Amino acid sequence: MKPSLLIILCCIIAQCNCFAQEEGQKSKETSPFTISGFVDSYYTYTFNNPTSKNLAYFTQPARHNEFNLNWGILQANYQKGKVEANFALQEGTFVRNNYAGEPGFLRNIYLANVSYKLTNELKATIGIREAAINLESNLSIENPVYSRSFAADIMPYYQSGLALTWTPSKKFTLDVSLVNGLQKIQDNNSAKSLMLTASYQVNDQLLIGYGNYIGNDNLDSLSAQIAFFNDFYVKYDITDRLQVAATVEYHAKEQLGTSAYDTATEFFVWLRYKLSDKWSIAAFFENYNDPSEVLMNTGTPNGFMLNTGSLNLAYRPQKNMAIRLEGKFFTAPDELFPKENMRSNNDAFVTFSMALKF
User: Fold this and answer.
1) Does 24 reside within a domain?
2) What integer pLDDT is reported at residue 26 of this predicted model?
3) CA 248 to CA 261: how far, in whole Å?
4) Could you report how far apart the first and last alpha carbons of the chain are, in Å?
5) How far is CA 274 from CA 126, 279, 314, in A?
6) Contact criterion met (CB below 8 Å) for 96 and 59
7) Per-residue pLDDT tens for 127-177?
8) Helices assigned H by DSSP within the chain
9) CA 274, CA 277: separation in Å to the nearest integer?
10) Pick from 146, 158, 1, 132: nearest CA to 60
11) b/e map of 86-120 (b: 16 or more CB within 10 Å)?
12) Are 158 and 184 spatial neighbours (Cβ–Cβ below 8 Å)?
């Protein structure tokens, strides 16, 4: 992260703290300012030993045989009455990979948004914010599996636009956004896109949800190609210790010059078992089927088609910390994965991580 950004944020935080202290001396009201953060460090070893040290297609984790920072976030929040604002800076290998398409001055911004409550149930937000339309959270500490699925890694982590969030009850949330594009802060055309997410907590055990994106991300100089991305998920607590969750995705994108569509499908499932209050294990399987390369360009005969599986062991000494060990393998009909100075149709890695949310 550029030193200037850190200096600016530290100055902002210092001013907020000073203001909060002054306000605290004047009244007994709770300060509207809060500071939070997230640190996720890791070591990954992939057995293909790629020369570049970069893990193919992944943003979390991203580097081979290297102790590194996956994602570091420092965030300032303001909330008073009907008004809320969030501003967060970020750094790490996740940022380097996932924000490569953004101009340099925007890459280190994770959140920058302002919200206003129109009613008790309806909130309007404008700016840069999270855009997870998948079952998995952006932050690894909130997921049972350390590395994210390809379904989540390929879909947007962030968005820039105007959103309306409706929460008529504690069980149901609907979020509709008009955005610049699929994971874009700086727009690349004159079109705008639509994103929608909905979740319903049926009962204490069952959660169901849906995520959707509709838009055209081609340059104005090119013909438009409307894309439809759909994500359906369910999470069910079988017992207090055993949890299962699954996601199904269906994506379609217009073919240039025709009325036909290229399609891609994806499915993943995880099973987590809590050994105790602090220890848990999780198993994960995923199938990705994108032969027409709707979302991922590989240049191979079968496109982006693969199976993935993993086993995870997690230790959580406290609620805001996770120490995890993960083993993950991949197999594909084509040679998708870097292997030293060549390519391979399979790969496997082991990751050790420590993450703290504060």
Assistant:
1) no
2) 46
3) 19
4) 20
5) 39, 6, 9
6) no
7) 999 987 889 999 999 999 999 999 988 888 999 999 999 999 999 999 999
8) 3-26, 93-98, 150-154
9) 7
10) 146
11) bbbbbbbbbbebbbeebeeeebbbbbbbebeeeee
12) no
Which residue carries 């984790």 as its tokens?
61
> Residue type for 130, please?
E
**CA 230 to CA 211: how far, in whole Å?**
6
Q: Which residues 6+ apart lie within 8 Å of 162 measured at CB?
A: 124, 125, 126, 177, 178
Question: Per the structure, how many domains does the chain have?
Answer: 1
- Count the neighbouring beta carbons within 10 Å of the beta carbon of residue 127: 19
Do 69 and 93 touch, CB atoms closer than 8 A?
yes
Domain that holds residue 207: 40-67+116-357
Residue 286 sits in a domain whose CATH number is: 2.40.160.10
Lowest-confidence range among 130-134, 181-185, 270-274?
Answer: 130-134
- pLDDT tens column, 67-105: 999 999 999 999 999 999 999 999 999 999 999 889 999
